């Protein structure tokens, strides 16, 4: 790029926002990132007091990480654990391995915290090496809306203001990228400027995270190289390994059923009947504690089209497509959005109108197909045998 660099605001410093910020900065854009949360690195004391939560990362996501930053992908991928198949647990605790592919294709378990830490480290490193073209991180800035009438403007609640409702600060950029997740404010704003088709649907299922501690001396108490599944007719449990010998386990069940499990006695009976071997691994007291105190998450399916307005604004990641997690591709798809958008900006030599138009035109069919697969997997799982996960 010649002259002064083009400026871009990225709304959302989640996994997808951080990755595109890094990718754009490395291509010479002047990047500012907004997030309403505080910087997670500030909690200097004991950053590992949080339990690890893991994600399935696939070739789709890994390719995108490599494209943006080879060093970052190396660092983040160090602790991944390949899963070559799924391990089905029946109600007697018997296990049966089902291998994914003849040629050993696998998905991988990756630590979510480690992944976002690697991204932040790489942003810090970039800033140290680039005196006047730093990635500016604006934490504790809640974006209320974006104004796209004239110069693209990010409107935030003023963190120094006395009134959270009315005191705002505004920042102008050449363009804005919305990576602010499933409840995207950027998407809501965009809907005022374009004829966006949009749908949002909650499925009747919630999720709750459980935790399987490491075995003696940090050993794995079940096979780490499988995605463990306890499929039951209307509900299920899954578990993915963490590098420290533990597993993150997630219970999925209909809201009514899950919320009906209130009393320790009910929970104990439900778990020991349906997941006896998992109870041995997690510990019944922990199961009860999780059910009675941990938040239960909703799952929704969001689609839209189109994704951009002129050369001023575009949405990516969960802001543009939120899928139910039964295909393990939400973040992977968001990462792929990043790779494709960066490649199109390069292809069109920075002509954003052309790049955004081609993005919307070519990306939508792929996204539609993946979202449908995720929902089909859920429908099949909840009506048939329940073996179709991932
Ligand atoms: C139970 C479960 C399991 C999953 N498992 C997998 C898996 O195995 N593999 C996989 O690929 N995906 C998985 N996903 C999906 C994955 O978590 C998401 O696709 C991914 O986190 C989306 O990243 P994102 O950066 O687009 O959005 P988010 O992670 O939601 O980040 C959005 C960011 O924007 C910020 N923000 C939001 N609103 C504002 C605002 N108004 N102003 C300023 N900042 C704002 C938020 O603070 C946040 O930091 C799973 C999801 C669930 C629920
Ligand atoms: C990074 O991960 C940690 C641990 O999961 C979380 O507390 C923090 O909010 C995350 N930060 C971002 C910006 O995603
Ligand atoms: C754990 O490690 C210690 C020290 O190396 C060893 O003495 C002990 O036998 C190990 N325990 C098990 C269950 O492997
Ligand atoms: C929106 O939906 C209508 C009706 O299905 C369709 O005709 C139209 O092409 C869609 N627009 C976009 C941008 O997808
Ligand atoms: C981008 O390309 C289109 C034609 O495809 C052209 O009309 C437009 O002026 C170009 N925009 C810029 C900023 O060069």
UniProtKB/TrEMBL annotation:
Residues 7-371 form the FAD-binding domain. Keywords: FAD, Flavoprotein, Membrane, Mitochondrion, Mitochondrion outer membrane, Monooxygenase, NADP, Oxidoreductase, Pyridine nucleotide biosynthesis. The keyword Nucleotide-binding does not apply. GO terms for biological process: kynurenine metabolic process; pyridine nucleotide biosynthetic process. One of its GO terms (cellular component) is mitochondrial outer membrane. Pfam families: FAD_binding_3. It catalyses: L-kynurenine + NADPH + O2 + H(+) = 3-hydroxy-L-kynurenine + NADP(+) + H2O. GO terms for molecular function: FAD binding; kynurenine 3-monooxygenase activity. Its cofactor is FAD. SUPFAM superfamilies: FAD/NAD(P)-binding domain. InterPro entries: FAD-bd, FAD/NAD-bd_sf. PANTHER family: KYNURENINE 3-MONOOXYGENASE. This is Unnamed protein product. It comes from Ambrosiozyma monospora (Yeast).
């Amino acid at each position: 790029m010649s002259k002064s660099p083009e400026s871009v605001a990225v709304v959302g410093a989640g996994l997808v926002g951080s990755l595109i910020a890094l990718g754009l900065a490395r291509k010479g854009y002047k990047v500012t990132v907004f997030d309403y949360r505080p910087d997670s690195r500030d909690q200097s004391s004991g950053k590992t007091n949080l339990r690890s939560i893991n994600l399935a990362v696939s070739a789709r996501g890994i390719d995108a990480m490599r494209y943006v930053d080879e060093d970052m992908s190396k660092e983040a991928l160090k602790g991944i654990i390949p899963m070559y198949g799924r391990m089905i647990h029946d109600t007697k605790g018997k296990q049966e391995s089902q291998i994914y592919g003849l040629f050993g294709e696998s998905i991988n378990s990756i630590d979510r915290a480690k992944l976002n830490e690697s991204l932040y480290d790489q942003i810090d490193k970039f800033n140290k090496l680039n005196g006047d073209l730093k990635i500016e991180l604006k934490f504790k800035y809640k974006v209320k809306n974006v104004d796209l009438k004239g110069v693209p403007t990010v409107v935030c609640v003023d963190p120094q203001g006395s009134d959270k409702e009315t005191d705002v600060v505004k920042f102008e950029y050449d363009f804005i990228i919305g990576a602010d997740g499933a409840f995207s404010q950027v998407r809501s704003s965009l809907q005022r400027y374009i004829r966006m088709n949009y749908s949002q649907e909650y499925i009747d299922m919630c999720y709750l995270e459980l935790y399987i501690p490491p075995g003696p001396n940090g050993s794995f108490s079940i096979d780490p190289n499988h995605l463990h599944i306890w499929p039951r007719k209307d509900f299920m449990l899954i578990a993915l390994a963490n590098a420290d010998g533990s597993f993150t386990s997630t219970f999925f069940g209909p809201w009514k059923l899950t919320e009906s499990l209130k009393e320790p006695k009910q929970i104990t009976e439900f778990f020991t009947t349906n997941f006896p071997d998992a109870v041995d691994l997690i510990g019944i007291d922990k199961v009860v504690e999780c059910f009675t105190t941990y938040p239960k998450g909703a799952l929704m399916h969001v689609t839209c089209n189109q994704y951009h307005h002129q050369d001023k604004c575009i949405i990516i990641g969960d802001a543009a497509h939120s899928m139910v997690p039964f295909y393990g591709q939400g973040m992977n798809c968001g990462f792929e959005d990043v790779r494709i958008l960066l490649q199109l900006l390069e292809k069109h030599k920075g002509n954003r109108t052309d790049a955004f138009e081609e993005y919307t035109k070519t990306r939508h069919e792929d996204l539609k197909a993946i979202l449908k697969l995720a929902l089909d997997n859920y429908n099949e799982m909840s009506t048939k045998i329940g073996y179709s996960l991932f």
